[in-house]
Amino acid sequence: MPRGNGKTEKPSQRSTARTMHLNLRAGERVYINGAVVRTDRKVTLELMNDATFLLEGHVLQAEEATTPLRQLYFAAQTMLIDPAQAALARTIFETLRGGILAATSESMIVSGLTTAHTFVEAGRPFEALKVIRALYKAEAALIDGAQPAPILPATLQPSDRIEPRRPASRTHRTVPNPDLKVSRMAEEVSP
Q1: Is 170 part of a structural domain of the chain?
Q2: What is the pLDDT of residues 34-48, one digit of tens each?
Q3: Pair 139, 166: CB distance under 8 Å
Q4: Enclosing domain of residue 97
Q5: 56 in a domain, yes or no?
Q6: Where is this region: Disordered (predicted)?
Q7: What is the Cα–Cα distance from 61 to 72, expressed in whole angstroms?
Q8: Count of structural domains within the chain
């Protein structure tokens, strides 16, 4: 079995579960099912069962949520990082999404938010995070008064029918900040 390649094994190679290898640098954090793990040296972790995780590089800190889309990203991220606060984070996500849709008719952002909403409704907030990150440039262009990119990349478009992720196939790279509290987020985002 190859180690450290960051890919999952094919189901035929391992009958009991899918595995995921995470290569981490010294001092890097990874958030796994709401727990924060920090390494003291370069290490490869093998996740041998279904787990939700974020790598530190994809975690948005509360103070970085300075635009509507970044606040939306933060809410979706909280659904992954803090499962106990997922219901509140989902409510905040929907409120923010509605506000953004009311404020813009930019087709790329509207399409992206529809896709992100579909992923969240299907219980797949990790995929929603990817879609929202892809919209940052279009949002910046709107804020700066320039024309945004014309279309959402095809790789971020949902299929015709998005199914909720099954436990055996969920392999998310998600990294939350343990110090972040949804209640703080709600205070910062509330009108």
Answers
A1: no
A2: 788 899 999 998 988
A3: no
A4: 62-164+181-189
A5: no
A6: 153-191
A7: 12
A8: 1
